[in-house]
Design brief:
Order of helices and strands: HHHHHH
Structural class: mainly alpha
Oligomer: single chain
Largest sheet: none
Distance between the termini: 22 Å
Amino acid sequence: MSIDWTKTEFEAYVLLYAAQCNIIETEEEREYILSKVDERTFNKIHTQIVFDKEEDIIENIKEYLVIHKYAQEEKRALIKDIKEVFFADGTVDKVEKSIFKTLQKILN
């Protein structure tokens, strides 16, 4: 696990997890994430998220939040960005809804 991520890398990790949680990363989701992070960061984190197992991803997110003491306002902003990823392609499926609830719990 890379808990030495920058804040941008961490946020890319969370957003890419949201985009890929239903196995389908749409072009709209990709474009939204690229509006938040540069392409180099996107590609670096994309490679990592593809290889990480879901339970490891959740643990990585929890651990990063504990170590880096995310402020409530930062957590709210990240939840908003996660919603934007889910709605980027115009639909939210059951898997995305479930993952959103999980991420919301972690971030609250």
